[in-house]
Amino acid sequence: MKLQDESIGDLFDTGLFIDGTWVRSSSGDTRDCLNPADGSVVATVDEAAPEDATRAIAAARGAFDEGTWPRTPVAERTALLATIADLLERDKEKLARIETLDTGKTLAESRIDIDDVVSVCRYYARLAAIESDRLVDVGRPDVISRVVHEPIGVCVLIAPWNYPLLQISWKIAPALAAGCTMVVKPSEVTPLSTIAFVKLIEEAGVPRGVVNLVQGSGAVLGSALTDTPDVDFISFTGGLVTGRVILETAAKHVTKVAVELGGKNPHIVFADADGDDSVDQVLTGVFLHSGQVCSAGTRLIIEDSIADRFVAALAARAEKIRMGDGLDPASRTGPLVSMAHREKIERYVALGVSEGAELVTGGSRPPNPELERGSFYLPTIFDRCDRNMRIVREETFGPILTVERFTTEAEALRLGNDTEYGLAAGVRTADGARGERMVRGLRHGTVWLNDFGYYTAAAEWGGYKRSGNGRELGPAGLSEYQEIKHIWHNTAPTAAGWFDND
Ligand code: NAP
């Protein structure tokens, strides 16, 4: 692998990590990873071929079936996770730099991501350590009945490009804690921080074959990774279209799949929560990371009586957002991840205009000459939207806010649930009883009341409806990687006696 930025070079080895060794892609294919802020090449990495993915699965299968890791005492497994967390902290600045160069997000955001990854590793180290068998009273003194957790087996872990390190850590940490072996596939668009992470996991002393890494195109590797009986669990985070393909493919083998998919998340503002803080929260909720956040609050649903003033204040703030290279401390948001993604956003903006939405601000690339080489796009607000518009229904995954208005609480709730997705929602109101009615009525996996965007390692994350199934983080995020076994132990064996003939 070639690396243009010497300051991060020591976090890398070579391309793919299979069966405890860094190897080249068997096809010899490579990919240039571009800095979205200026189009420069950050690194050139190996691109795995399907045969590499098959070898990686075989290595993980061997490590699970014959290796030590699934049978290693939990204290040793959690100690390894704690060491990984220490190494992440040691290399935090380098990792943050890698993430910014690869994704375009600001260094401040990347640092928060690394802190979160550390907290996820430490959380699962603690949780797995305290997990114990459950004794079941079967009403017989001669029987000991226990329910125990065992590692589910070989896992394929597939992550998207928007939070590469964070998303993959939500999978790797519980998988390691549970005693699984795995094949990790980052997005081909942003593989660098995952390569560095696997390098740290190697340094921490993970046994051979437990963690394998194949970066490369999903379209090329997809079937080798998912259309196989040798995998016990697939954990996928990405878009709805890819999620469906994986679910259909895995169904052939009855492989368990957890999918964390997109969102079209409402942020509902009642008139009694009017004010600068609410404007600020709506702004941050949608435009952080240039809107490339699965839980971004892309639908503002606002009480009609305050809508005009609120939207004007929001537009004024949006126009002042400082865009720039994520490495520049003055930047408050970076570019979109790629030129191709910006083109997608431009198509959605053109669609919004043609659908009759009122363009309040944005709707173009920034005029600043110093941003010309990057894939930047202005924060964009569309007012007077309705749910028949595709920009309201579909996940645009960029800096586009749509505004819908309501007059009653029932209407607000109906609009908030009027989406095929169900990942996250926000409610802003000063009325406690109404807030409680709203958070219970909204069919979304996370609901924020008078706040937006927060999560924690100890609380489950996941979607209702087409935002996915399964959960990451929290105790349920560990359970995904476990089989449950009931052990019935008769301490005073006798004949069954059912077929006795007297
Ligand atoms: P994507 O296109 O669905 O890709 C996600 C991952 O799947 C990538 O690693 C991709 O590889 C891989 N992939 C593509 N085709 C595949 C196939 N046939 N078989 C197996 N893997 C395949 O999604 P994305 O554009 O990277 O990410 C954006 C989406 O992720 C958004 O919808 C966002 O909402 C969602 N997301 C959800 C959450 C959540 O927690 N629910 C969190 C973050 C993001 P390549 O990149 O190499 O093609």
From TrEMBL:
Ranges in a coiled coil: none
Database matches in InterPro entries: Ald_DH/histidinol_DH (IPR016161), Ald_DH_C (IPR016163), Ald_DH_CS_CYS (IPR016160), Ald_DH_CS_GLU (IPR029510), Ald_DH_N (IPR016162), Aldehyde_DH_dom (IPR015590)
Record pathway: Amine and polyamine biosynthesis; betaine biosynthesis via choline pathway; betaine from betaine aldehyde: step 1/1
Superkingdom of source: Bacteria
Record keywords, A-Z: NAD, Oxidoreductase
Transmembrane segments: none
Entry-linked CDD domains: ALDH_BADH-GbsA
Gene Ontology terms, MF aspect: oxidoreductase activity, acting on the aldehyde or oxo group of donors, NAD or NADP as acceptor
Aldehyde dehydrogenase domain residues: 22-487
Signal peptide segment: none
Keyword match NAD: yes
Family membership noted in the UniProt record: Belongs to the aldehyde dehydrogenase family.
Protein name: Betaine-aldehyde dehydrogenase
Species: Rhodococcus maanshanensis
